[in-house]
Specification:
The protein is of the alpha+beta class. It is built from six helices and 18 strands. The chain has an eight-stranded antiparallel β-barrel. The protein is globular. The N and C termini lie far apart (92 Å).
């Protein structure tokens, strides 16, 4: 009797173990058994991606001590399969990037080409985003969202099924993501009454007003002689991550902020009307030590510029950062006090 019970328990335990292992895998059984549905979802996804004139937004989370989500703006040309990407991390290169929608693997999938910003985000890892693949299962399509899920949850041996992103249509008032660069220190005259001018930045945390503060700040120019060293430390630099790409050479500006008992000039990247405080593995004053301190102190790793207003010698600039839904949760107001 004991022997019978032993084999019975062993058999039941084996079934439970197999079931628990199976739960870790995405089988796509529904799509496999309903190929018409798979083709329908793929067709709907392609039509929906083409319908957003201003593109779509993925909000990704970093592994940093940052309360904000990073916007990735994607525009899909469904005629040529060209992909146009804008991020706060750096200027997009002129190299062409592509995407495709396929139904050949059991579920409709959205696939981005290697060497693009989308595949670069996957290769750099948690420092920049929670993206874990350049292949995504299309898991839902509605009138205003396209839900995609990273095919893998990590490296090639990790279980299937990563983060689900509900892409939404880019808000019309996100002017920073349009073609005009109005926050650009390389533009003629932009640095007038800004570079080298003692200034003030007011920080407003929309959901946590107790964190609001005003800091002494200011921008100053980065010497051309330092650019090579700083660019070599860029997290998406091809020499650091084989297979990365999609970014143009980076540009930096010094930004003063309180550091321990003094002030410090960190060097964020400016691109696409935004400042990126993403720590670099190496470089100049934008390395891990200083930028990690900045993020731990202020709890954001980027600011997008909403407006630049000049009145005589006075310059005011409005910045913001977003939550998972693309809502503003951090506001920053720059004033040169002139």
């Amino acid at each position: 009797m004991r022997k019978i019970l032993y084999h019975l328990f062993f058999f039941v335990g084996s079934i439970v173990l197999l079931a628990s292992c199976e739960k870790d895998n995405i089988t796509n059984a529904y799509f496999e058994d309903n190929t018409e549905r798979q083709e329908k979802v793929a067709k709907e996804a392609k039509e929906m991606l083409a319908s957003a004139e201003n593109g779509w937004v993925m909000m990704v989370k970093t592994g940093l001590n940052s309360d904000v989500y990073t916007p990735i703006v994607l525009k899909f040309d469904t005629v040529t399969n060209r992909l146009y990407v804008k991020t706060v991390y750096g200027e997009t290169a002129d190299t062409e990037s592509y995407f495709r929608i396929t139904t050949g693997t059991g579920a409709p999938q959205l696939i981005f080409t290697t060497g693009s910003i989308m595949s670069s985000l996957y290769r750099v890892g948690a420092q920049a985003s929670d993206i874990t693949d350049h292949i995504y299962n299309i898991v839902g399509v509605s009138s205003d969202t396209v839900a995609i899920q990273c095919y893998r949850s990590g490296n090639v041996y990790a279980k299937e099924g990563g983060v689900i992103y509900k892409m939404f249509k880019r808000p019309v008032d996100w002017k920073w993501a349009d073609g005009e660069n109005y926050f650009d220190f390389n533009a003629s005259g932009f640095g007038t009454n800004v570079l080298g001018t003692a200034s003030r930045v007011q920080l407003e945390y929309v959901n946590s007003p107790e964190k609001n503060r005003t800091i002494a700040s200011g921008f100053s120019a980065v010497a051309a002689a330092n650019l090579s060293t700083m660019r070599n430390g860029f997290a998406f630099q091809i020499s650091r991550n084989i297979g990365t790409g999609g970014f143009a050479p980076t540009n930096y500006v010094f930004f003063r902020f309180p550091y321990l008992t003094t002030n410090y000039d960190g060097a964020p990247i400016f691109a696409n009307n935004a400042l990126s405080f993403l720590p670099q593995p190496a470089g100049y004053t934008n390395n891990v030590t200083y930028m990690t301190y900045f993020i731990n102190t202020f709890n954001f790793h980027y600011l997008v510029c909403k407006s630049v207003v000049r009145t005589g010698n006075n310059v005011k600039m409005e910045f913001e950062a977003y939550d998972k839904a693309g809502k503003v949760i951090v506001k920053a107001t720059y004033d040169n006090l002139l």
